[in-house]
């Protein structure tokens, strides 16, 4: 199945060389004169244009092309707002690729898990950052190393995110079992937990990353490269074809199916019980029967989602990468589900899918 899932293509895919254009510049609103007593905060870089607006109820607020910041009713401050960073997919122009379902994800792939038939394909060979989808390989390596899930691991300063500066409720010194760490990493995408899993691998983090890449090559994931176990680095990259292979491999382990589809978990951190929740709301949706899933997000990757699900009487693997908008990956998944379960599905499917993808 591993090698088979990376064969064949259906829809025309965007060439990164041909579409490697720079992202378009966003126009800012014209700056208005600050209200009385307003202070201007500037940086060494060229400032982003803003405007100050007074309201009766909320006081002064600062508006820019992208952000609204509320400040004190008595004091107005003009602040510089950095424009949102374009994802790699946006920079490559992948969002300009049309598809019949009008997906917001620049990369999409839906494969029948049993027959290897490709039902939907959009830029499946594009190699992009995969964010926390990385943690699926992290869980796979830990599981196949047969490390005890009862061993107690400790969060250290080495697990604190210096890549993106993200926060965590797992403070330095927190002790949890390996099983709890893996649960939080896979269900809630806990970065410190994922990094701790890598550090406590025989040989430490370098050996763990080497094992991740070795497993990818063994599975035939030749577009894939890992540099760390969390996905915070944009250097962790893969393609939809490779990630379909990863989902299929991870699905073979019951522990990974269980932990990724769990909705909630409670862990004791010192004297406190902390509640953690899934990052994928579809797990709770009765319209879905999800066997394995993982979400991911960093600005360079956009919103990402991989799943194994039972839909329309078939076991399917679904990959959505570089989706623009907080909820757009969920919206894309729903579009695909409705298409597969509608009367229009088979007719549209004949245009999107080959008869079969052979081994």
Automatic annotation (TrEMBL):
Region forming the signal peptide: 1-17
Enumerate composition-biased segments (Low complexity). 23-38
Residues annotated as domain Peptidase S11 D-alanyl-D-alanine carboxypeptidase A N-terminal: 99-323
Q: Which UniProt keywords apply?
A: Cell shape, Cell wall biogenesis/degradation, Hydrolase, Peptidoglycan synthesis, Signal
Region annotation (Disordered) maps to 17-47
Pfam families to which the protein is assigned, alphabetical: Peptidase_S11 (PF00768)
Its family remark reads:
Belongs to the peptidase S11 family.
Question: What is the name of the protein in this document?
Answer: D-alanyl-D-alanine endopeptidase
- Provenance organism: Rubrivivax gelatinosus
């Amino acid at each position: 199945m591993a090698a088979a899932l990376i064969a064949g293509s259906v829809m025309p895919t965007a060439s990164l060389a041909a579409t490697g254009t720079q992202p378009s510049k966003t126009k800012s609103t014209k700056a208005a004169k600050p209200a009385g007593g307003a202070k201007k905060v500037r940086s060494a870089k060229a400032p982003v244009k803003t405007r100050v607006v007074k309201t009766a109820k909320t006081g002064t607020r600062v508006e820019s092309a992208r952000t609204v910041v509320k400040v004190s009713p008595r004091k107005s401050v003009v602040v510089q707002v950095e424009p949102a960073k374009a994802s790699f997919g946006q920079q490559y122009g992948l969002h300009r690729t049309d598809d019949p379902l009008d997906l917001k994800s620049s990369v999409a792939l839906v494969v029948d898990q049993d027959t290897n038939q490709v039902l939907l394909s959009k830029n499946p060979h594009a190699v992009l950052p995969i964010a926390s989808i990385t943690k699926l390989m992290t869980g796979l390596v830990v599981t196949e190393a047969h490390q005890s899930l009862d061993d107690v691991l400790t969060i250290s300063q080495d697990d604190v995110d210096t890549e993106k500066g993200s926060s965590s409720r797992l403070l330095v010194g927190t002790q949890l079992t390996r099983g709890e760490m893996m649960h939080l990493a896979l269900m809630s995408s806990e970065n410190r937990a994922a990094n701790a899993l890598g550090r406590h691998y025989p040989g430490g983090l370098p050996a763990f990353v080497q094992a991740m890449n070795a497993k990818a090559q063994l599975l035939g994931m030749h577009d894939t490269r890992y540099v760390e176990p969390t996905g915070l680095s944009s250097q962790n990259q893969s393609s939809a074809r490779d990630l379909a292979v990863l989902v299929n491999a991870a699905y073979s382990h019951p522990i990974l199916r269980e932990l990724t589809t769990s909705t909630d978990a409670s862990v004791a951190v010192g004297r406190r019980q902390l509640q953690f929740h899934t990052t994928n709301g579809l797990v709770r949706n009765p319209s879905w029967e999800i066997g394995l899933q993982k979400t991911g997000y960093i600005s360079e990757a956009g919103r990402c989602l991989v799943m194994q699900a039972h839909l329309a009487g078939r076991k399917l693997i679904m990959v959505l990468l570089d989706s623009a908008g907080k909820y757009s990956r969920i919206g894309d998944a729903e579009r695909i589900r409705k298409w597969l379960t509608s009367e229009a599905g088979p007719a549209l499917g004949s245009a999107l899918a080959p008869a079969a993808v052979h081994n």
